[in-house]
Design a protein that fits this description.
alpha+beta, three-stranded antiparallel beta sheet, two-stranded antiparallel sheet, 3 helices, 26% helix
Amino acid sequence: CRGHCQQSINITSSPPELVASKQPNFPQESYPPVQRQFPFSSTQWEQLVSLLDLETFTALDNRIGCPGCADGGIEWIQVDWADATKRVTFESGQLFKGLEGFVVNLRQMREEYVAQL
């Protein structure tokens, strides 16, 4: 992939912010990494967290399907708690029963904030 192929958002409650970034898969002079912080209110945080069924998320395998196979895209979601971390990597565009709203919301936020970079 040529250009800013990797796009991500990192949302934290403390400090309350969203960091959006995009970068190439390999160093490319024409496409330097870009990153920007955005405010993220406690209301936004509560709305996002309300979409996460923690029991369903933690029950998922760490890797689902064959992300990146046959030139397919890769997505991942990581949730950090005070005493644990769970990261799930999966094929781009995939949804999970019980987490559809959470995943779709994250994708929409990624598109919205990365577009402002």
